[in-house]
From TrEMBL:
Family statement: Belongs to the shaker potassium channel beta subunit family.
UniProtKB keywords: NADP, Oxidoreductase
A GO CC term assigned to this protein in UniProt: cytosol
Domain NADP-dependent oxidoreductase: 15-313
Organism from which the protein derives: Propioniferax innocua
InterPro entries recorded: AKR, K_chnl_volt-dep_bsu_KCNAB-rel, NAD(P)_OxRdtase_dom_sf, NADP_OxRdtase_dom
Transmembrane segments: none
GO molecular function: oxidoreductase activity
Source taxon at top rank: Bacteria
Name of this protein: Aryl-alcohol dehydrogenase-like predicted oxidoreductase
Length: 335
């Protein structure tokens, strides 16, 4: 495993992080989830990402149980706050001081730890003054309940405002967690350069596009049984990518991957990690062998000519419009 600094901070994270969105507490049983977490540890992965909303808090519980007994100082545990949890009452969502302070206590209890290494605002809250949100995060950091603060899917303007407040409050806002892969590049034109200026790293999710970039979905054929495309909770995220033309183009990436001794999934991860501003790539898994396969992508870098070939093969299937970033955060709170 290779390690990188999280932005310009002193914290190092494993290039491949293990995340449990759509898996723990929903798609796979706790025993299998624990096996995947232990496989991650065996592969040298030290960075684990979750959120209170995943499986309505159950994912945090499963991860905490799976990591029980490990040396806490050797792990980097990330979680998030924003989306509705619990009975989803009027204050069970958003980035108000009330919800943030109550959420961190719940997350720490479920994860079985006294602190998280990174506490992230899962989306921007248009209904709460940003000053209130950042003040609550500052209290959490100063109380030792989180070492660093991050955001997820925020616009460049929101990130710059938050970073200015963070400096005034003397807390380290060090990362952004966006969706990023060969097909989805909406952060490249604005968010990435701004974060580079501010010393913030990218903790990217969906680096293999929910499995589309693994090559397991074939043009003209039904999705494999048991895959995300056939699951009740995951199919909605990739159904628009399962076109014959795109799947054919993904298959055309296979020779490039083979030239580098990589599977298509590893090649997709190597593509993400070839961007120096990416601190780590979050991968999920439903089987331990998937974890080990993903971990083998660490340390691989693709040259500029290979990156250009990827662009040529994927063509207009690449989404780059930076205005889409703002669509991720609901304009009104979800209940």
């Amino acid at each position: 495993m290779e390690f990188r600094h999280l932005g310009n901070s002193g914290l190092k994270v494993s290039e491949i992080a293990y995340g449990n969105w759509l898996t723990h507490g929903s798609q796979i049983e706790a025993e299998q989830a624990t096996a995947c977490v232990h496989a991650a540890l065996d592969a040298g992965i030290t960075t684990f990402d979750t959120a209170d909303v995943y499986a309505n808090t159950v994912a945090e519980e499963v991860l905490g149980q799976a990591l029980a007994g490990q040396r806490r100082e050797s792990l980097e545990i990330f979680t998030k706050v924003y989306f509705p949890t619990g009975p989803k009452g009027p204050n069970d969502t958003g980035l108000s001081r009330k919800h943030i302070m109550e959420s961190i206590h719940g997350s720490l209890r479920r994860l079985g730890t006294d602190y998280v290494d990174l506490y992230q605002a899962h989306r921007f809250d248009h209904a709460t003054p940003l000053e209130e949100t950042m003040s609550a995060f500052a209290d959490i950091v100063h109380q030792g309940k989180a070492h660093y603060i991050g955001v997820s899917e925020w616009t460049v303007e929101q990130i710059r405002r938050a970073h200015g407040l963070a400096r005034e409050l003397h807390i380290p806002l060090v990362s952004n967690q966006p969706q990023y892969n060969m097909l989805w590049r909406i952060i490249e034109d604005e968010v990435m350069p701004a974060c580079a200026d501010l010393g913030m790293g990218q903790v990217v999710f969906s680096p293999i596009a929910q499995g589309v970039l693994t090559g397991k979905y074939l043009p003209g054929q039904a999705p494999p049984q048991g895959s995300r495309a056939t699951s009740e909770g995951g199919s909605q995220f990739i159904e628009n990518l399962l076109t014959d033309d795109l799947l054919t183009r993904v298959q055309r990436l296979a020779p490039l991957a083979e030239e580098h001794g990589l599977t298509l999934a590893q090649f997709a991860l190597a593509w993400v990690l070839s961007h120096e501003q990416v601190s780590c790539a979050i991968t999920g898994a439903s089987r331990p062998e998937q974890v080990h396969g993903n971990a083998e992508a660490a340390g691989h870098r693709l040259e500029a000519d290979v990156m250009a070939q990827v662009d040529e093969i994927l063509g207009d299937h690449v989404t780059r419009d930076p205005s889409i970033v703002g669509n991720a955060s609901p304009q009104e709170r979800l209940t």
